[in-house]
Design a protein that fits this description.
heterodimer; A: mainly alpha; two-stranded antiparallel sheet; two-stranded antiparallel ribbon; B: 306 residues; 1% strand
């Protein structure tokens, strides 16, 4: 724990240095990166050793403030999230050095960046409710300031505002859930929360509050509204950190509350599962309809949080129905997807950042042909895109495979597991396959329109790969995608301990056996992946051999006899997506702006589509309006005439009198 | 010695598939020719075509990148991997482990991803159109396919393709699975009424238009992969309705299977001859219908096994 705290302190100090005016803009980035590197070594060491040999370490220092103890605890569950956090923070700070470059001088992104990382690390080890809330709020505020980096733009200010509102909505829920948990014991330690018995109603309320409170951070539907706004607004390294790690802390919160509560009920699992399915499918459909690359990625975060929720929900169902195999595999899949998503989502945000820097636009329909100009970025983006679509050989497949395997176990358990488990498993498989296929289409669109074909506008002309400091983190993350995809066996071994912690109360032996069986399957998946790669290389080699000495001509793309085709005639992102999205038109409500084609020789015309977020427009706008009308009303009373105030006082006195007469 | 024997038995169906796949395309074409009153091309035409293409040079568009050059090899390799899982012998398959069906379906998805990207890589709007249509139909085809596999998994309580189809699955489930799988086969293999592989109008195609720019050995690999895919789906369809273990040995079993596959291909040819291509939204409706059939099979399977 000493090393851990030292790492966090170094992180904050490295951030504070960026306030010294004598330090140059680039040096600030380097110092911040050094801080993150120290944190990776100092805090990552204990986390990894937890995963290998689980022995929770804790630290406890009482303070004079009632209820607040400085108590920290590092266990396997925290460790797996810590590993994601430290890896991504280190890589995205390296990426950020060149990304922020000289801009760092005006505001202090590096300070907030390091505070964000430090507060996330502390959230993960806090074992006291007050401490947890303090760091949770520090995390929310520092990320708020990071989103506000380009505060000159109106969109950015609006996005940051929505983010602040939604994270404070979450905070209110979390405060009340801790309050409910502290009722029996009267003390704010997580350990005593777990030891005291909670009534069924309280437990259900705590569970629902945790979904709302942590859901506001995790960003599953319907609490996702801030995500598609904050990510396009935030700088790319920050998006990478926020989408890669910060939203996972919402998942961590939910899992932590589940561990604290202990006894689950089947409907909890079904609620988590249905939330997962909704956000998975709606997230990917909305992602498909976006033109803004960062917005597209943000909606994909919603989808992936949905997949993680699917796994967790199935895990909870498995515990309730007493089938250890289902629950162990499902939680393993969910936790591995937490790790995997943090890898490929940060990778994709970094690539997107490089592309946006090079072209100066967020709009995929203006890009094209970037693979030739930015080969490394393009290859990395393609790797990330294949990984996030869950294709084999890459890491996304491994975690989805585990969740599929859990669902298949649930089905083959049949009647013994209970109806809920069968329904849950069927829903999981169908939803996952649908999500997978749609995600594949969506990333075919993102990759194909951005990187392949020919440049659609002149903004692509001068594009080139960014400097090595920005490419290196991308290449490292792509490498991890491949490594985990092929060596899924080892990943599952590392996950066994956190999973066993989550399925406490079930037959641990049984859970371990099912994990071993899964690692047998994953071993064969890895071998199959290698064999696949050999086949691909063999195919390529065979073609090269066959074509040796023969005529290989470069030419134009087959234009069906029309020789005047231009780059503007290529399929655009919206035209690519339209046939798929027509099926979901009721959900999407896409606005189309364009002229009717009437004369035989149409003149200059333009066409555009825009897909607004349905919940933001139809639900939250009304809720927020109603709330603001309410508060206006209260304001009127508060600042109103003296007569009204006197009347209020009299009414209040009368009510108190009546109360004391009736119950006193 | 027994071990080598089992391995040989398990690998035999895969080898059959790899060798015989181009032949069944010939069967489909001959059936169509018969209905049109023509003699039609030789049954082995696709072998000749592939052989011819392998001996040719190639033309690559200047717009394309390494993605375009990688795609044919990727789609062939992933189809072969899927075929290794779905080539069932009486006791197993060339590759079999719990959950292998997931890998097979995702391998087919990988082949699709590669083809779609290579189509977009050419920058041709026709190929973009084909890619967009492929992506439109994929979620529905994949869902229908997954649900029917799920029905087999529930009915047989197993998690691996090899044991799944060998188990005693109730007849109504088998029939529903077959019909649903046949619809998915028509769509996934670009057959009428979902797609017309023989039309000359790029505007109306899905799969053929995506490979407009491929030539030489690459096109050969693509043709071969397409025939493997048809073989994969047809042999699964046969496994749906033909109970395993009718004859003693693997040779007899495979002979029956091949006969079944030829029957399925003739059926495909008949469907192609008597129907016109559907409008694209109708294709989607057809796939939704297939998903409904699969779900029905799943419901019956859940009911029986509970």
């Amino acid at each position: 724990m000493d090393f851990f705290l030292a790492g966090v302190v170094i992180l904050v100090f490295a951030g504070l240095l960026s306030f010294f005016p004598s330090v140059g803009a680039r040096a600030r980035g380097r110092i911040a990166f050094a801080g993150n590197l120290c944190a990776l070594i100092l805090c990552g060491g204990p986390a990894v050793s937890q995963l290998l040999h689980p022995a929770p370490v804790s630290l406890m220092a009482a303070t004079s403030i009632p209820g607040l103890n400085f108590s920290l605890r590092l266990d396997c569950l925290s460790a797996i999230f810590l590993v994601c956090l430290l890896m991504i923070s280190c890589l995205s700070s390296l990426y950020g050095i060149s990304y922020f470059g000289g801009q760092g001088s005006s505001s202090a992104p590096w300070f907030w960046f390091n505070v964000l990382v430090a507060s996330m690390a502390m959230v993960l080890v806090s074992a006291n409710a007050f401490l947890f809330l303090f760091f949770w709020e520090a995390m929310a505020l520092s990320s708020f300031f990071l989103v506000l980096h380009d505060s000159g733009k109106k969109d950015v200010r609006e996005a940051a505002w929505i983010y602040a509102v939604s994270s404070h909505f979450g905070l209110v829920c979390i405060i009340s859930l801790f309050f409910l948990l502290s009722l029996p014991g009267g003390d704010m330690e997580f350990a005593s929360f777990a030891n005291s018995a909670h009534s069924r109603v309280i437990a259900a309320a705590v569970f629902l509050l945790s979904l709302a409170g942590f859901g506001a951070k995790a960003g599953f539907i319907p609490f996702h509204v801030w995500l598609p706004r904050a990510h396009p607004a935030a700088p790319s390294p920050v998006s990478a950190l926020m989408s890669g790690v910060m939203i996972k802390l919402g998942i961590y919160g939910i899992l932590r509350v589940l561990v604290i509560l202990g006894g689950f009920e089947p409907w909890w699992g079904l609620v988590i599962l249905s939330l997962g399915i909704t956000s998975g499918i709606i997230g990917v459909v909305f992602a498909f309809s976006q033109h803004d690359i960062k917005k597209l990625l943000a909606y994909h975060s919603i989808e992936n949080i949905g997949i993680i929720m699917l796994g967790s929900g199935l895990g909870v169902l498995g515990i309730c129905c007493g089938v250890p195999a289902v629950s162990a595999l499902a939680f393993a899949g969910a936790l591995l997807h937490v790790f995997n998503h943090s890898v490929f989502k940060s990778l994709l945000f970094m690539c997107a950042g490089a592309v946006i820097k090079a072209t100066g636009t967020h709009n995929v329909d203006e890009m094209g042909g970037l693979m030739k100009k930015m080969p490394v970025t393009g290859a990395c983006f393609l790797t990330g895109a294949s990984a996030i679509s869950g294709l084999p050989v890459l890491n996304g497949f491994v975690s989805e495979f585990l969740i599929f395997l859990a669902a298949l176990h649930g089905l083959s358990a049949g009647g013994t597991g209970g109806k809920e488990l069968v329904y849950g498993s069927v829903a999981t498989v169908v939803a996952l396959s649908l999500i997978g296929a749609l995600a594949l289409g969506c990333f075919a669109k993102a990759c194909g329109i951005m990187f392949l074909g020919e440049g659609r506008t002149e903004c692509c002309n001068g594009a080139k790969d960014p400097c090595v400091a920005m490419l290196l983190p991308m290449m490292v993350l792509s490498g991890i995608c491949f490594l985990v995809g092929i060596g899924g066996v080892f990943a599952v071994r590392l996950l066994a301990n956190p999973v066993l912690e989550l399925v406490e109360g079930l037959d641990a032996r049984q859970a371990e056996i099912s994990l071993l069986q899964a690692s047998y399957s994953l071993g064969l998946v890895g071998i199959c992946a290698l064999a696949f790669l050999v086949l691909v290389i063999g195919g390529l080699a065979a073609r090269t051999l066959l074509l040796r000495g023969r005529k290989v001509l470069p030419s134009v793309t087959w234009d069906c006899g029309y020789s005047e085709s231009t780059a503007r005639m290529q399929y655009s992102g919206s035209s690519f997506a339209r046939p798929t999205l027509e099926f979901f038109c009721l959900l999407l409500g896409t606005h189309r702006k364009g002229p009717e084609i009437s004369p035989p020789f149409p003149a200059t015309s333009s066409f555009s589509t825009h897909t607004p977020d349905f919940l933001e427009d139809s639900l939250f706008r009304h809720v927020v309006n109603a709330l603001s009308r309410c508060s206006e009303f209260i304001c009127r009373i508060e600042k109103g005439s003296v007569h009204l105030q006197i009347l209020l006082v009299v009414v209040a006195l009368f009510v108190i009198l009546a109360w004391s007469m009736l119950y006193g | 010695m027994a071990d080598t024997n089992t391995i040989a038995v398990d690998v035999f169906p895969l080898l059959c598939g790899l060798v015989l796949a181009p032949f069944i395309i010939g069967v489909v074409n001959r059936t169509k020719a018969f209905f049109a009153g023509r003699n039609g091309q030789p049954l082995l035409q696709l072998y000749f075509d592939i052989f011819k293409l392998l001996r040719k040079g190639a033309v690559f568009s200047r717009s394309t990148t390494w993605v375009f050059r990688l795609a044919p090899a990727v789609s062939l390799a992933s189809t072969v991997s899927a075929l290794a899982i779905f080539s069932l012998s009486p006791e197993g398959a060339a590759l079999s482990f719990p959950g292998d069906i997931v890998l097979a379906v995702y391998m087919l998805a990988l082949a699709r991803f590669a083809t779609v990207l290579s189509a977009l890589d050419t920058g041709s709007s026709f190929e973009g159109m084909g890619a967009s249509r492929e992506v439109m139909l994929a979620p529905f085809a994949e869902a229908a396919f997954f649900i029917l596999i799920l029905a087999a998994a529930v009915a047989s309580r197993s998690m691996s393709a090899a044991t799944m189809f060998a188990a005693a699955i109730p007849l109504p489930v088998r029939i529903l699975m077959f019909v649903s799988l046949f619809i998915v086969l028509l769509v996934e293999n670009c057959r009428v009424p979902a797609d017309d592989p023989n039309t000359h109008l790029e505007l109306t195609m899905i799969h053929e238009v995506m490979v407009l720019d491929n030539s030489g050995p690459d096109l050969g690999m693509i043709f071969y992969a397409a025939s493997l895919k048809l073989w994969l789906f047809a042999s699964l369809a046969v496994c749906c309705i033909m109970p395993a273990g009718l004859t003693g040995g693997i040779i007899g079993e495979m002979a029956l299977r091949v006969a079944g596959i030829i029957c399925v291909c003739i059926l495909v040819g008949v469907v192609e001859s008597v129907m016109a291509r559907f409008r694209f939204d109708k294709v989607r409706r057809m796939l939704v219908f297939a998903s409904v059939l699969s779900s029905l099979a799943l419901l019956i399977a859940v009911g029986v096994s509970a």
